[in-house]
Amino acid sequence: MTDSRRPSRRRARHQLAIAAVAGAAALSACTTAAETAPVNDVGGAADNTATTTITTIPTGSFPPTTINATTITPTTATIPPTTIPTTTTTTTVPEVLDVFDPNCVTLAETGGSLEAVGVARGIDDPTGLWFENDQIDAVAPGDLIDICLDNGVNDIDGQPRPPIDDAARGAALAANVERQQSKLNELFSG
What we know:
Largest sheet: 2 strands, antiparallel
Distance between the termini: 136 Å
């Protein structure tokens, strides 16, 4: 015995199945129409609107449902053209020195010491620089400096250069100490 106010399970399942079929039919019957005007090259558009209409087709015992159409107006932005400035670079190629081996000779840009030139070029043998250049320590702006040590040749004029022996190296160091001492004596005497 079933209560007349309560639908039976079978009847409830039947109504649920009908509702599901109706929903599926309504869903498949929905139409979407969208019209969009193409954007021209200048950045504007003749008519940039999109219209969407959804209509549900009535079925069975369900009342028809209609959803109002909506109009979407997109915003447009104008992007200015990008220009990249042209740049020019001027490279000054140093003039090749008129010497026997330009790769082994440098030009003193400022006055100073052979040690400063050696440090700038990564040479850690100041006495070798003295012997290669036949001078002790001081250079004037524009002097040519032979920076290839112990290669047996004067790279400025191409003349052979005897190898540096330990006795000559010791004598050069002693002469440099005497020169420095005399400069110090001059400074303290005056």
